[in-house]
TrEMBL record:
<keyword id="KW-0863">Zinc-finger</keyword>
<dbReference type="GO" id="GO:0045892">
    <property type="term" value="P:negative regulation of DNA-templated transcription"/>
</dbReference>
<feature type="zinc finger region">
    <location>
        <begin position="3"/>
        <end position="34"/>
    </location>
</feature>
<dbReference type="Pfam" id="PF03477">
    <property type="entry name" value="ATP-cone"/>
</dbReference>
<protein>
    <recommendedName>
        <fullName>Transcriptional repressor NrdR</fullName>
    </recommendedName>
</protein>
<keyword id="KW-0238">DNA-binding</keyword>
<feature type="domain" description="ATP-cone">
    <location>
        <begin position="46"/>
        <end position="136"/>
    </location>
</feature>
<keyword id="KW-0067">ATP-binding</keyword>
<dbReference type="GO" id="GO:0003677">
    <property type="term" value="F:DNA binding"/>
</dbReference>
<keyword id="KW-0479">Metal-binding</keyword>
<dbReference type="InterPro" id="IPR003796">
    <property type="entry name" value="RNR_NrdR-like"/>
</dbReference>
<dbReference type="InterPro" id="IPR005144">
    <property type="entry name" value="ATP-cone_dom"/>
</dbReference>
<dbReference type="InterPro" id="IPR055173">
    <property type="entry name" value="NrdR-like_N"/>
</dbReference>
<dbReference type="Pfam" id="PF22811">
    <property type="entry name" value="Zn_ribbon_NrdR"/>
</dbReference>
<comment type="function">
    <text>Negatively regulates transcription of bacterial ribonucleotide reductase nrd genes and operons by binding to NrdR-boxes.</text>
</comment>
<feature type="compositionally biased region" description="Basic and acidic residues">
    <location>
        <begin position="163"/>
        <end position="190"/>
    </location>
</feature>
<comment type="similarity">
    <text>Belongs to the NrdR family.</text>
</comment>
């Protein structure tokens, strides 16, 4: 590493630390020639391969801009979008791949976006999962409802599973509950 002050081609690492978000390493270096110190930031390169086959560096701002359109008119703050973009980048880096297809980035966005805002999730999913009909929306909505029901049941009974004391699960108390349970089962198989 060249010293930025005297251009000496050698330097000594004095200290190394992870950056706040864990995506980079900050190194404090000292030049043996002039004795001055400087900081370098090292990151691994992450390329996104576009439909045209051209690669470009991963950009959190592009993730934010794409998701911002889906979140238009929704109660989602800029901080929420920044956190989502960070989570997406962390998920991509955790895969260990140096290159990723742009379409895969869109699919990776879906998980954190679903947790953030379900309406924005549906808007975004309609593009990246290529919804072609109302049935595609209906099945996605049914799946979201089913997941919400499961989450609500788990939250209502912490420390227990959804089965009753006999281990067979709780039976619907009346015809309305039974019909609702049958509808949820039918929709989740779409």
């Amino acid at each position: 590493m060249y010293c930025p002050f005297c251009r000496n081609p050698d330097s000594r690492v004095v200290d190394s630390r992870m950056a706040d978000d864990g995506s980079a390493i900050r190194r404090r270096r000292q030049c043996p020639e002039c004795g001055r110190r400087f900081t370098t930031v090292e990151t691994t390169s992450l390329s996104v391969i576009k439909r045209s086959g051209v690669g470009e560096p991963f950009s959190r701002s592009k993730v934010i801009n794409g998701v911002r359109k889906a979140c238009q008119g929704r109660p989602v703050s800029e901080d929420d979008l920044a956190m989502l973009a960070q989570e997406v980048e962390e998920n991509i880096r955790a895969s260990g791949a140096a290159e990723i297809d742009a379409h895969e980035v869109g699919l990776i966005i879906l998980g954190p976006l679903q947790k953030l805002d379900k309406v924005a999730y549906l808007r975004f999913a309609s593009v990246y999962q290529a919804f072609e009909s109302l049935e595609d929306f209906e099945s996605a909505i049914a799946l979201l409802r089913h997941e919400s029901d499961v989450d609500a049941k788990e939250a209502a009974a912490p420390g227990t599973d959804s089965k009753g004391s006999d281990g067979k699960g709780s039976e619907p108390k009346n015809t309305v509950e039974k019909n609702a349970a049958e509808k949820n089962t039918a929709k989740s198989t779409l």
